[in-house]
Write a structure and sequence with these properties.
By secondary structure, this protein is an alpha/beta fold. The chain is built from eight helices and ten strands. Helix 5 packs parallel to helix 6. Bound molecules: adenosine-5'-triphosphate (ATP). Adenosine-5'-triphosphate (ATP) binds next to strand 2 and helix 1.
C-alpha cells in the first residue's frame, strides 16, 4: 500500500532523509519515530506528494509518485505538521470544499460526526483563524480522515492536543485500520506511537536506524532500547 525504496531528500547541502525503505500494509499503522530534525516530516511530505524525492522510488496505493502523483494524492489523506487550514474558512467550509473536490455524496453526517468526536461541534461555523493550536491539530486530523482515504498520513497529530483529542485521534486511526486503510503516524511520543501503531520506523539524522514491531519499544526495556537508538 505504501512502498518506499532508497528514499533520499536533499535541500541544498542538507540531507534531510538519507536512505529509507518502508513497507506499510493495509490495516496496519506504522509510526515514524525520532528526535527533532530526524527526517520524519520530510518523509511524510514526500509520501503526501508535497516534496519530491531526490532519489529513490515511492508508491502510494499502487501509484508511483513520480509518474502518477495526482492519482496517489486522490487516495490519501494528509495531516501536515503545520498549516493546512485556511484561516478565513470555517470547519464546515473546509469539509464542504473537500467533499466537492472529491465528489463525495452524503458527506454531511460524517462531517458532523467527526466534528463532534473531536469536540469541534461548537465551532463548526467559526473561522479557523482564531483556533488554538490544539483545535487546529484536531481539525487537521478531521480533514485528513474525512474522505476515508486508503492511506492516512498523520504528521504529529498529538502535538499539543488534550487527552480527549488524543482519544479521538486514536479512534480515527483504529477505524481507518479496521476499514483496511494503511496509516502512518509521525511523532516523537513513543508511548502514543506504541498505542496507535503496529510497527515503528526509528529515524536518526535522516537515516533509518530501526524497523521493529511497536511492542519492541514498549515498557521500560522498550524505552531503554529506544533511547539507545537515538543516542
Ligand atoms: N525546506 C527545507 N529546507 C532546508 N532544510 C530543511 C527543509 N525541510 C527540512 N529541512 C531539514 O531537514 C532535516 C529534517 O527535518 P524534518 O522536519 O524532516 O525533521 P523532523 O524529524 O520532522 O523534526 P521535528 O520533530 O522537529 O518536526 C532538518 O535538519 C531540517 O532542518
Amino acid at each position: 500500500m505504501v512502498e518506499v525504496r532508497g528514499l533520499r531528500v536533499r535541500f541544498g547541502a542538507v540531507e534531510a532523509v538519507s536512505g529509507i525503505d518502508l513497507d506499510a500494509r493495509p490495516g496496519q499503522a506504522t509510526a515514524l519515530l525520532g528526535r527533532n530534525g530526524a527526517g520524519k516530516s520530510t518523509t511524510m511530505r514526500v509520501l503526501a506528494g508535497v516534496v519530491p524525492p531526490t532519489e529513490g522510488t515511492v508508491h502510494v496505493a499502487g501509484h508511483d509518485l513520480r509518474t502518477d502523483r495526482l492519482a496517489a494524492q486522490h487516495r490519501l489523506g494528509y495531516c501536515p505538521d503545520v498549516g493546512g487550514l485556511v484561516p478565513r474558512a470555517t470547519p464546515w467550509e473546509h469539509l464542504q470544499l473537500a467533499a466537492r473536490l472529491r465528489r463525495l455524496d452524503d458527506w454531511e453526517d460524517r462531517a458532523r460526526d467527526l466534528l463532534e468526536r473531536f469536540e469541534l461541534g461548537a465551532v463548526t461555523h467559526r473561522v479557523t483563524a482564531g483556533f488554538s493550536h490544539g483545535m487546529g491539530r484536531r481539525m487537521s486530523v478531521v480533514l485528513a480522515a474525512f474522505h476515508r482515504p486508503a492511506v492516512l498520513l498523520l504528521d504529529e497529530p498529538f502535538d499539543g492536543v488534550d487527552p480527549l483529542g488524543v482519544e479521538a485521534t486514536m479512534d480515527v486511526i483504529a477505524d481507518a485500520r479496521a476499514a483496511g486503510a494503511c496509516v502512518l503516524v509521525s511523532t516523537h511520543l513513543r508511548e502514543l506511537a506504541i498505542e496507535a501503531c503496529t510497527t515503528a520506523l526509528v529515524l536518526r539524522g535522516g537515516a533509518q536506524v530501526a524497523d521493529v514491531s511497536a511492542q519492541e519499544l514498549a515498557g521500560e526495556d522498550g524505552a531503554r532500547a529506544y533511547r539507545s537508538l537515538l543516542d
